[in-house]
Amino acid sequence: MSISERLNLVLKDKSLKIKDFSDASGVAYRSLQNYLNGEREPNTESLVKLSTQMGINLNWLLTGDGNMYISEDSFSQSNEYAYIPVYDVEVSAGHGKTAYGVNEPEGRLAFRKDWLVSRGLSPNDLHAVIARGDSMEPTIGNKDTLLVDTSRNTPRDGHIYVIRSGDTLWVKRIQQQPDGGLLLISDNSTYPPMSLRLEEHSDIEIIGRVVNVSKELN
Q1: What share of the chain is helix, strand, coil (3-state, %, to 5)?
Q2: Looking at residue 103, what is its pLDDT?
Q3: Four-point Cα dihedral 186, 188, 193, 194, nearest 10
Q4: Would you state the pLDDT for residue 105?
Q5: How far apart are alpha carbons 21 and 29 in whole angstroms?
Q6: Do 196 and 179 touch, CB atoms closer than 8 A?
Q7: Region class of 167: left (phi > 0), else alpha (psi between -120 and 50), else beta
Q8: pTM for the full model?
Q9: How do residues 177-206 score in pLDDT, each as one tens digit?
Q10: Left, alpha or beta for 208 (phi > 0: left; psi -120 to 50: alpha)?
């Protein structure tokens, strides 16, 4: 079995389209097509992305030996990097985005452990999601990757949070009101603030605070 055949097995196993695989792994769409078609073999940069973002066991990909994926224990044994799960859900920087139930990460992002520690962040509390819309521009743009700290889910003025209401996710800046309510504020002034009282909505949950934004450059 060739590298392209094994890569196609991963694509099938994850039930991903090529475009989704490209977005999750960070491997360019055209390059990924070439790898899948057997027209080229992955270069070193692509191999690193396939391993760190998708959890693919490179020994298996290159030789067919071992397991298809790196074990969770292997991910956690790195002395220098923490591999933060990336979930295939979108949070709305607009009017709300339906979030389907997702239990398993689609990939992982590598962060230096010393960088996380310097900011008081624990890898076990972190995950990453994708922003959609323009209501939080210029702070958060469409397709930016958000690092969310789920341990920081108590609202504090001025910070940005991911908020769930039923099957809908928002990313908004929060301001507490004198009556105990919350004001969800968009950084883009063309979007009006939204009032919210948590005690009146049992299905609303503050998932966590956005602690880092990775910008999408055009």
Answers
A1: 30, 30, 40
A2: 56
A3: -50
A4: 67
A5: 8
A6: no
A7: alpha
A8: 0.59
A9: 887 788 899 999 999 998 877 677 667 788
A10: left
